[in-house]
Design brief:
The chain is α/β, with parallel strands linked by helices. It contains twelve helices and 15 strands. The longest helix has 61 residues. It holds the Pfam family KH_NusA_2nd.
């Protein structure tokens, strides 16, 4: 029995990855419960499992007292000193009370408790393993689906792919191999639950890291992503090395790198644009493939702007169902209003008039200041002349009297 128990614990640790100490702790707790149930023992029972030999020992723990009130919980000082003279009142003594048939009873009673603890330990192992993959990408196999979820086998656990996390242009069949983004891992009462996504923008980020070594190494950095899953995405990139072209690096020779990502996403269109510190340049890049004539920022709202494009490229800049403009706004975090050049002629004319008016005002103010200064000088000169005349008049008067 002892060897079989030890072999079973070793096999459980090797196959399930559950540490032997966890199972032994569960076993000891189960044996205490079994002993109390079958022998009506009080709450002073301890069970010890010998990890080397596999033997099980049951001990009744009693307290040393002067007067014994309950023989199951207490032992007299006289009896304690007969065992060992060093015992004093208040000490705890363990007496072995292992029944002869306890092995059979323990095996029957503790089976369900041990299985439950083993299941809990397995859940903990799985949760710890997959929580490390949260916000990362994994490959799985489509198992089945129902009205709510598609179930993806990730190896030790089935992950769920909800409708909002699915790509609208994809149809999933059993045994299909797909790459999924682990959006979150929860430890529920029914066990670990892994939620995966195919529409999350960070799936695109992880695919770029897998396909493009420069992105993985940090030489090329993905600044922002705007994605409408299954249809089109825009990715803003910048280089941390002056000798590396970020857009060319991501596209790859003959577009091989970006094409691998497009194939994984079942033909989702991909626009890779270069990030720039100048918001006007960044917005112009984000609206590719449309050409931008001018970017006018709203002084009242720093996150809003008007983009001027040639009349013949207005529809290209807006995109199908406004998609190009919408993705550019998400990518740049700006509210973008697109106007054709023809509608902006009046605006430019008003700006020119306003500029001319400001120039005229400046000229008028300069002339006014100069005139005022001149008048002040003349007035001061008049005052000086009058003062000089006043000084001269007494001398003339004196000459007249003489």
């Amino acid at each position: 029995m002892s060897k079989e128990m030890l072999n079973a614990l070793d096999a459980l640790e090797a196959e399930k990855g559950i540490k032997k100490e966890i199972v032994i702790e569960a076993l000891e707790a189960a044996l205490v419960s079994a002993y109390k149930r079958h022998y009506g023992q009080a709450n002073n029972v301890e069970v010890e499992f010998d990890e080397k030999k596999g033997n099980i020992h049951v001990y009744a723990v009693k307290e040393v007292t002067d007067e014994v009130m309950d023989s199951q919980l207490e032992v007299s000082l006289k009896d304690a000193m007969a065992i060992n003279k060093a015992y004093e009142v208040g000490d705890k003594i363990r007496f072995e009370v292992t029944p002869k048939d306890f092995g059979r009873i323990a095996a029957q009673t503790a089976k369900q408790v041990i299985l439950q603890r083993v299941r809990e330990a397995e859940r903990t192992v799985i949760y710890d393993e997959f929580s490390a993959y949260e916000n990362d990408i994994m490959q799985g196999i489509v198992e089945r689906q129902d009205r709510r979820y598609i179930y993806v086998n990730l190896g030790k656990i089935e992950a769920v792919l909800s409708k909002q996390d699915q790509m609208p242009n994809e149809f999933y069949q059993p045994h299909d191999r797909i790459k999924v983004y682990v959006s979150r891992v929860e430890n529920t009462s029914k066990g670990p639950q892994v939620f995966v996504s195919r529409s999350h923008p960070d799936l695109l980020r992880r695919l770029f890291e897998q396909e493009i070594p420069e992105v993985y190494d940090g030489i090329v950095e993905i600044v922002s992503i705007a994605r409408e899953a299954g249809d089109r995405s825009k990715v803003a990139v910048r280089s941390n090395d002056a000798n590396v072209d970020p857009v060319g690096t991501c596209v790859g020779p003959k577009g091989q790198r970006v094409q691998a990502i497009v194939n994984e996403l079942k033909g989702e269109n991909m626009d890779i644009v270069e990030w720039n510190e100048d918001s006007a340049v960044f917005i112009s890049n984000a609206l590719n493939p449309a050409q931008v004539v001018d970017v006018i920022f709203n002084p009242e709202n720093p996150k809003a702007c008007t983009v001027v494009v040639p009349d013949f490229q207005l529809s290209l800049a807006i995109g199908k169902r406004g998609q190009n403009a919408r993705l550019a706004a998400k990518l740049t975090n700006f509210k973008i209003d697109i106007k054709p050049e023809s509608e902006m002629e009046d605006f430019y004319a008003q700006q020119a008039e306003a500029a001319d008016g400001e120039e005229l005002l400046d000229v008028y103010e300069e002339e006014f200041v100069e005139t005022e200064a001149a008048d002040t000088v003349d007035y001061e000169e008049t005052d000086d002349v009058e003062a000089e005349l006043d000084m001269e008049q007494p001398e003339e008067a004196e000459q007249t009297e003489e």
